[in-house]
Each structure stands twice: as C-alpha cells, then as structure tokens.
Amino acid sequence: MKAACVIGALLLCESAWAAGLADFAWVHNVPVYEVEITGEILHSTESFTQGLLCQGGALYESTGLYGKSTVRRLDPATGEVLQSVALDSDLFGEGIAYSQGELVQLTWLENVGLVWSLPDLARTKNYRYHGEGWGLTADEHSFIMSNGSPWLYRRDFEDFSLLDSVAVTIAGRRVSGLNELEYAVGRVYANFLGVDDIAEIDPATGSVTAVVDAAALRDLVPGDPVNTPLNGIAYDSASGEFFLTGKLWPKIFRARFVTSFGK
Question: In terms of C-beta distances under 8 Å and separation of at least 24 residues, what long-range contacts does 97-104 make, across chains too?
Fold first, then answer.
C-alpha cells in the first residue's frame, strides 16, 4: 500500500513538526482549530479511502489498492453503499473531484485520470498527466491536484493540462506529504499522509492559514496515523459541515472546525 511505500521518505521537508502539524502551528502563531463532531455514519473497514466528495446530495468515494480500487456512491445519512464500480486491477484509485456533471478520479502511478459521468458512474474518457496522482479537488476555475510533494497543481477543466503550481508553506517552511484535498469557502483543506492534522491553505499563495487538530477523531477509531491514516475530506455546502474519514475507518464523521483555546 502507498503508506508503506512512502511514509519513511516524506511527511516534511522540515522535520521540526514531524510530531504534529498542530504543535508546530502553535509555536509559530498559526491559528489552530479543533474538530467538533456533529454526527457519524457507518463506513466500510475494507474501504482504503483515497478521495471523498459531497455532490448533489450524495457522497462519492474513491478507494485504493490494486485489485480493490473502486469509485462509489454513498448515502450521506447512513453510509450505505448505493453503487460501486470496480477499477481495472492494474489501477490504484486516488483523489476525486467534480466538474461539469462528471467526476475525475486520479490513479497513483498509472498517469491516468478516469472520467465518470453522473449520476450513473459510467466511465466516459481518460486524461493523461505526468507524475503521481494523490489528491484532487476543484474551485470555480480549475482542478487542484497534489502528488505527495509540497506543491499544489492547477489543471484545466477541459483537458486536464497543467496551468500553474504553488508551493505550500507554513511559517515560511515548505511542507510535503500533501494527500487528499477539498476546496471549501475559498480555502483548500489537505490531509497529510501519516499525520492526524488537516491544513487550511490559501490556494493563491500556498500559505497554511490554519491547522485543524483532528485528535478527537483518532480517539474514536482503531489504529494509528501510519497504518489507518486520516484521509477523506468532503464539504457539505448546505450545512457548512465537513465529512471526515480515513483509510479502513469504521466511521465517517460529520464535523465543524472550531477555534481551539490552546494547551
């Protein structure tokens, strides 16, 4: 699995916050939020979650691992899998994003983006790109993609061509391991592989404007940040809440990000 392949090689360009992004943020006066859980639904412990998306009243999930990767539609009230489509066994599913009535699903090492029509999840075409595929989201103008490096990449809605890129920094230091992404209210929210924190990023500058300490979630699920990492962020614009989950987690949580009052 991806975590086993890369966990020893990344997480940070600066090792100062390897114990936790939130701890580093506190020291450097970057705002820190906590997770306020407002609800929870069931999640399959066989789902190696690589992407999560709330769209049109449904949850869509991309799962990974060779021979087990899928794209699926979930009931956001119960977590029930309403539809699941298996990827070819030589494809490792990664992040997903919505644009113009379609889902785009990245693959890890195969340099191909799979395009699925909605609501039937029929595969319609592919996009090609260079490098690894990790997280994917979209704002009003373009797709935003991660590949495990410190960089966010903007890609064109029409042909997925590269438009530009920006390095992600906190307190002036570049950070690596950017994974699942979600765009919400002018900010990109990013999971980091192996860390139970979420970064809030200004997509124009790459600056981390706040950090979400997700320790409250880790206390409610088995495993550890390396073997069952937090990985799955979906914003529900109707409620202003986030859906949060992780690889092989038994639950998907509804949550809000609230101000932390320190340690």
Answer: 97/51, 97/53, 97/136, 97/137, 97/138, 97/143, 97/144, 98/53, 98/55, 98/60, 98/138, 99/138, 99/143, 99/157, 100/157, 103/53, 103/55, 103/60, 103/71, 104/136, 104/143, 104/160
DSSP letters for 183-252: EETTEEEEEETTEEEEEEE-TTT-BEEEEEE-HHHHTTSSS-TTTS-EEEEEEETTTTEEEEEETT-SEE
Cβ distance 193 to 177 under 8 Å? yes
Which phi and psi angles does 116 have, rounded to 5°? -120, 135
Confidence of residue 83 (pLDDT cuts 50, 70, 90): very high
Alpha-carbon distance of 93 to 55, in angstroms, equals 19
SS3 66: coil
pTM of the model: 0.92
CATH dotted code for 2-259: 2.120.10.30
- Structural domain boundaries of the chain? 2-259
Give the number of other CB atoms < 10 A from CB of residue 46.
10
Tell whether omega for the bond before 119 is within 30 degrees of 0, i.e. cis: yes
For the segment 90-122, what is each residue's pLDDT rounded down to a tens digit? Answer: 999 999 999 999 999 999 999 999 999 999 999
